[in-house]
Specification:
The protein is an alpha/beta fold. It has two domains: about 100 residues, Histidine-containing Protein, Chain: A (2-Layer Sandwich); about 70 residues, 2-Layer Sandwich (Histidine-containing Protein, Chain: A), CATH 3.30.1340.30. The strands form two sheets. Strands 1, 2, 3 and 4 form a four-stranded mixed beta sheet that branches. Strands 5, 6, 7 and 8 form a four-stranded mixed beta sheet that branches. Helix 4 packs across helix 6. It is globular. The chain starts with a helix and ends with a helix.
């Protein structure tokens, strides 16, 4: 189950517009299915890497994409892929493209090597879509995705702080947090 959750959540953030705490009507269930199909579409995009982060929300078939990607063509490709998903009536592509920077690029690779070469994260590294995403913009790092435990979350942050980043924001979610959010939305 953890691998499914990692795969699902690493590519898409579950948004409040889909997760209604009380009752879920038919339209919301349809939106939730569209959301899951959008997540699968993004996850299967061959150019989507651990250095990209895409979030989506769905309301009445209208998909709003947010997040950051490393190249302009990724923004456009993902928008086109999502538009082809059954049940999508419109796509609002609000993703931004990260600026080109040699320092940012080197920081991305150093942090990725540090995290995924650590023996605590080998089980993540062997996944087809590793769940920890490293977003670097102007020397500022944000870790997104899902990990199995609070210990993994804290260790990933610790590993990311040793390379001279201006700041490190830890937006990683634990498996338990993701499970609770999924249960709430059903």
């Amino acid at each position: 189950m953890f691998k499914q959750l990692c795969s699902f959540v690493a590519t898409m953030a579950l948004t409040a517009s889909i997760a209604h705490a009380a009752s879920v009507d038919v339209d919301d269930r349809k939106d939730f299915q569209v959301f899951k199909d959008v997540a699968t579409s993004v996850e299967r995009y061959a150019q989507f890497t651990i250095f990209d982060d895409v979030s989506a929300s769905v309301k009445d078939g209208v998909v709003t994409l947010t997040g950051k990607v490393t190249m302009p063509y990724k923004r456009d490709d993902i928008g086109r892929r999502v538009a082809k998903v059954d049940g999508v009536s419109d796509v609002r592509n609000q993703m931004t493209v990260l600026p080109v920077s040699q320092f940012d690029q080197e920081l991305r690779y150093r942090i990725a090597r540090s995290i995924y070469n650590n023996s605590n994260f080998w089980n993540y590294a062997i996944m087809a879509n590793p769940p920890i995403h490293i977003i670097v913009e102007h020397g500022r790092v944000t870790l997104t995705g899902v990990v199995q435990s609070e210990v993994d979350r804290m260790l990933a942050r610790s590993l990311a702080t040793q390379f001279g980043a201006l700041s490190v924001t830890n937006a990683l979610k634990t498996d338990a947090e993701v499970s609770a959010a999924l249960e709430k939305s059903e």
